[in-house]
Design goal:
Distance between the termini: 35 Å
Strand order of the largest sheet: 1-2-3-7-6-5-4
Bound molecules: biotin
Number of strands: 12
Number of helices: 4
Strand content: 25-35%
Shape: globular
Helix content: 10-25%
Structural class: alpha+beta
Order of helices and strands: EHEEHEEEEHHEEEEE
Length: 254
C-alpha cells in the first residue's frame, strides 16, 4: 500500500476531506491524496472548525480502501504516522498523542486528525492538519497557548532523529507542505497496514494523557491508557475503571 498517487493539489478549496470524500465516492483508488494551500471550510472533530493561514500548514486528506479488520485501528494509526513524519522532518523533537488522535509536542497541539469512514462503501478518508510554520500570533486567540508549529523557533531539536533518519528540513531552510506531504505519505503507508497490536504498542508509548485528570460529559477520573479497541480507560474517584469511546464522548478537561 502506498499514498500520494494520484495526488490532487488545490491552491484553495473548502475542505480537503470533502474533496477526498467526493473522489472516493466516485471510485478514486487507494492512496489518493488531496492537499490544499488554503481551506475555506476546514473541518475538525466534533463539528469544530479547522483554520490555518495559507501555505503554513499541511492540509492533507488520504483515501484508504478497501477497508479490512485492521483498519479499525485507523484513528490510532494515523497519529503515529504524523508523529514519525514530524520527528523525521524536525529531528530531536518528540511527539505524543492525546487521545484519541491529537498530536502534541510538550502538551501543545501540533496536528489534528479527522477520520471519516464509510464502511458500507468500503473506504475511509484520513484528514490531517499539521502546523508547519504558523507563527504563534497567527493561531486563533483561544488556541494560541495550546497550539504549536513544527518549526516554532522555541522548540529544541535539530539533532539526530530518534530513528536515525536523515533530516529533510535543514535549519534555516523553509519546510514546504509538499515536502511534508511526501514524508507523511511514507509513514502513513506503514502505519495504515500495521498489525493492530503494533499500533496499540506504539500508541501506548506515545500516550500523552496517561496519569492526567480527564473529564467528559458523563464523568471524570484519571486517564489509564487505552484498551485493545482504542477506547480510553479512566479510573474514576470511586475506583471504577471505565472505557470511553471517541465516538461517544469528547473530553471537556484534559
Ligand atoms: C481536529 O483536531 O479536530 C481535526 C482537524 C483535522 C483538520 C484537517 S485539515 C485537512 C483535512 N480537511 C479538513 O477539512 N479537515 C482535515
Amino acid at each position: 500500500m502506498s499514498f500520494g498517487a494520484p495526488h490532487r493539489h488545490y491552491s484553495r478549496t473548502d475542505s480537503t476531506n470533502t474533496r477526498a470524500r467526493e473522489l472516493a465516492a466516485a471510485g478514486a483508488p487507494q492512496g489518493t491524496v488531496v492537499t490544499a494551500a488554503e481551506q475555506t471550510a476546514g473541518r475538525g472533530r466534533q463539528g469544530r472548525v479547522w483554520t490555518a493561514p495559507p501555505g503554513k500548514a499541511l492540509l492533507y486528506s488520504a483515501i484508504v480502501r478497501p477497508l479490512g479488520e485492521r483498519h479499525l485501528m485507523l484513528p490510532l494509526a494515523a497519529p503515529l504516522a504524523v508523529c514519525d513524519a514530524a520527528e523525521e522532518l524536525r529531528p530531536g523533537i518528540e511527539c505524543g498523542v492525546k487521545w484519541p488522535n491529537d498530536v502534541q509536542i510538550s502538551g501543545r497541539k501540533l496536528a489534528g486528525i479527522l477520520v471519516e469512514a464509510r464502511p458500507q462503501d468500503g473506504w475511509a478518508v484520513v484528514g490531517i492538519g499539521l502546523n508547519l510554520t504558523v507563527p504563534a500570533d497567527e493561531f486563533p486567540p483561544d488556541l494560541r497557548i495550546r497550539a504549536v508549529s513544527l518549526f516554532d523557533p522555541s522548540l529544541g531539536g535539530q539533532g539526530e532523529s530518534r530513528r536515525g533518519l536523515p533530516a529533510v528540513a535543514q535549519p534555516g531552510l523553509p519546510l514546504t507542505p509538499q515536502t511534508a506531504a511526501k514524508v507523511l505519505n511514507r509513514h502513513l503507508a506503514h502505519w495504515v497496514e500495521a498489525e493492530p497490536d503494533a499500533v496499540l504498542d506504539a500508541w501506548r508509548q506515545r500516550d500523552a494523557l496517561r496519569g492526567r485528570e480527564v473529564a467528559w460529559d458523563g464523568g471524570s477520573g484519571v486517564a489509564d491508557g487505552v484498551d485493545d479497541r482504542g477506547y480510553l480507560l479512566v479510573v474514576t474517584a470511586g475506583g471504577d475503571r471505565v472505557a470511553v469511546g471517541a465516538g461517544e464522548v469528547h473530553l471537556t478537561r484534559s
